[in-house]
Amino acid sequence: MTVGAIAFGLILGGCGGEDVEPAGGALPVTNAGEFEQLLADSESPMVVNLWASWCIPCRSEAPLLTEAHRQLGDEIRFIGVATEDSQVDAEAFVAEFSMTFENYFDRSGEVKGWIGSLGLPTTFFVAPGGEIVSTVFGVIDERRLALEIDELLRR
Question: How far is CA 16 from CA 2, 11, 63, 120, 129, in A?
Fold first, then answer.
């Protein structure tokens, strides 16, 4: 199945899907330096989403990202970063949205500052080796996510 067909399925199929177990447990703590190294060390293209449990727009896009990971997780590494939140609330958010992709915890917002974001949510698309290809400030919708992923996979 092509990425375009998968993206089209995401748009038409909504965000429903099979029940999966959330990652569970405390989210690993990170900071800007550690996170930059994590991206640099990755051999896969990545979709990275900065979010917080208190962020209403983040709640609206969480099901989309969870479904995209379910469909494309073999081709793209999905990473979430809970920022300026509490560990307990971040863990509850991950469980609520069955987010089985990697999620990290950045209480101080260092990662958000490093990427140059002033607000949440922020989604950035990263080539293998850590090069940031594009950034979406604010809510990402199905169409934009599909277009950005297609572009990332063409690199």
Answer: 20, 11, 8, 24, 32
The residue to which tokens 């950045």 are assigned: 106
Residue 104 host element (H or E): strand 102-106
pLDDT in the model for residue 20: 33
Give the distance, in angstroms, between the CA of residue 135 and the centroid of all CA atoms in the same chain: 12
List Cα–Cα distances, 64 to 9, 67, 111, 145, 151, in angstroms.
Answer: 12, 5, 22, 9, 18
Task: For the chain of 155 residues, list the mean pLDDT of each consecutive stretch of 10.
Answer: 46 37 70 95 97 97 97 96 97 96 95 91 97 96 97 93
Tokens 């080796």 -> residue = 129
What is the pTM (predicted TM-score) of this model?
0.83
Which structural domain, as residue segments, surrounds residue 50?
Answer: 3-154
What CATH number is associated with residue 144?
Answer: 3.40.30.10
Q: How many domains does the chain have?
A: 1
What torsion, rounded to 10 degrees, do the Cα atoms 108, 111, 114, 119 define?
Answer: -80
* DSSP element (H, E) containing 7: helix 3-13
Identify whether the C-beta of residue 54 lies closer than 8 Å to the C-beta of residue 82.
no
Residue 134: strand, helix, or coil:
strand
